[in-house]
TrEMBL record:
SUPFAM superfamilies: Formate/glycerate dehydrogenase catalytic domain-like, NAD(P)-binding Rossmann-fold domains
Residues making up the signal peptide according to the UniProt record: none
Domain D-isomer specific 2-hydroxyacid dehydrogenase NAD-binding span(s) in chain numbering: 199-378
Pfam family, one: 2-Hacid_dh_C
Name of the protein in question: Formate dehydrogenase
Alphabetized UniProt keyword annotations: NAD, Oxidoreductase
GO process terms (BP): monocarboxylic acid metabolic process
D-isomer specific 2-hydroxyacid dehydrogenase catalytic domain sequence ranges: 104-401
Organism ancestry: Eukaryota, Sar, Rhizaria, Cercozoa, Chlorarachniophyceae
Organism: Lotharella oceanica
Domain of life: Eukaryota
MF (Gene Ontology): formate dehydrogenase (NAD+) activity; NAD binding; oxidoreductase activity, acting on the CH-OH group of donors, NAD or NADP as acceptor
Similarity-based family: Belongs to the D-isomer specific 2-hydroxyacid dehydrogenase family.
Length: 402
């Protein structure tokens, strides 16, 4: 039988353990929609999970499809998660409070108390209330619960922090190492999901899709207005900041469009890949950015990339260029992006990452011109949720077994 990633309810047993990142070598609010536990002190070990609120229309939603395509391995040959069993149907909404990542039956059967909430921010939030008793904390990149040093110091029982997805920049890794807290993620589970989102945003910006769509909704047929900012991507120079799993996937997907592709990364790709995609390598973003019509950001957030795209670097982009950011919001200077769009230097900006998240209603990226912003959704498609839900289950199986 195939590994997880096919239509069906349960995955087969597998001896392979899903790779996780440990804290010692990591690479790279809304109120709760439903409180699922009566607040009390429990003698059972506790797993604490922060998930985004349920759909406004209720749970479960009306799904568009009955199943998801079968995925047996990732592009680099790594196998998809293969837990011993799953308690959800692939394609279900797992990332919200009622979805519970499909973990309740498994954890309670193994003697754990599961607390799932979307109440993760502000004074006296439910996550903070349960944190001192938590043995495992699970969070998503799309709805982060920040495990700061202050929070880790208040969690004497904490042994593991799991990202349901990819990324660990929401965890103070130094504090985690000092307290011997393992930091894990579900590597590659949503890399292609994010890459597809980036490609979608590139096309939407360059083709001026969103205003054209809104014109139809408004009852208009304003062809001149729609095409006055619409171009072809063919022949454009498109560059990625970082060419890891996501960045390289974006380049591969843009190659058939006849674009001229650029990248910068600390680690140069192989000559074979460069030749296959006809890539131009640059040693730094500063070298690459002035050559590009579109820049897509796919690097992790750390001290060297925070506010990398500041007013100075943005000023070196071509007039009329586009930036797509599906990495982390703080890689771009919020006000510098808005200013460049208002002044007409950048032709467009799109992304699904913000700082802070959820973004306040007065965040300038909500109202700046020529943007294609979405909530942080790129890596939490129902397809991706099936993979990172299975990956979290496999990490917990391994943890409980030990």
């Amino acid at each position: 039988m195939p590994p997880f990633g096919y239509e069906g309810v349960k995955a087969p047993p597998s001896p392979a353990l899903f790779p996780t990142l440990k804290s010692s070598f990591t690479r790279n609010g809304a109120k709760a929609s439903r409180h699922v536990n009566i607040r009390h002190t429990s003698t059972k070990p506790k797993v604490l999970v922060a998930l985004y609120p349920d759909p406004k229309s209720g749970y479960p939603p009306n799904y568009a499809r009955k199943d998801i395509p079968k995925i047996e391995s990732y592009p680099d040959g790594q196998t998809v998660p293969s837990p011993k069993e799953i308690d959800f149907v692939p394609g279900e909404l797992l990332g919200c409070v009622s979805g519970e990542l499909g973990l309740r039956k498994f954890l309670e059967a193994n003697g754990y108390e599961l607390v799932v909430t979307s109440d993760k921010d502000g004074k006296d939030c439910e996550m903070d209330e349960h944190l001192p008793e938590a043995e495992v904390v699970i969070s998503q990149p799309f709805y982060l619960y920040y495990l700061t040093r202050q929070r880790i110091d208040k969690a004497p029982n904490l042994k593991m922090a799991i990202t349901a997805g990819i990324g660990s920049d929401h965890v103070d890794l130094d504090a985690a190492m000092e307290h011997k807290v393992d930091v894990t993620e579900v590597t590659f589970s949503n890399s292609i999901s994010v890459a597809e989102h980036a490609v979608m945003m590139i096309l939407a910006l360059v083709r001026n899709y969103i205003p054209s769509h809104l014109a139809i909704i408004a009852g208009d047929w304003a062809i001149s207005d729609c095409v006055s900012r619409a171009y072809d991507v063919e022949g454009m120079h498109i560059g990625t900041v970082a060419a890891g799993r996501i960045g390289l996937a974006v380049l591969r997907r843009m190659h058939p469009f006849g674009c001229k592709l650029h990248y910068c990364d600390r680690h140069r790709l192989s000559a074979k890949v460069e030749q296959e995609l006809d890539l131009v390598y640059h040693q730094s973003p500063q070298d690459m950015v002035p050559n590009c019509d579109v820049v897509t950001i796919n690097c992790p957030l750390h001290s060297e990339t925070e506010h990398l795209f500041d007013e100075k670097l943005i000023s070196t982009t071509k007039k009329g260029s586009y930036i797509v950011n599906t990495a982390r919001g703080k890689i771009c200077d919020r006000d510098a992006i808005a200013k460049s769009l208002h002044e007409g230097h950048l032709a467009g900006y799109a992304g699904d990452v913000w700082f802070p998240q959820p973004a306040p209603k007065n965040h300038p990226w909500r109202s700046m011109p020529h943007h294609g912003m979405t909530p942080h959704t790129s890596g939490t498609t129902l397809s991706a949720q099936a993979r990172y839900g299975a990956g979290v289950r496999e990490i917990l199986e391994d943890y409980i077994k030990d």
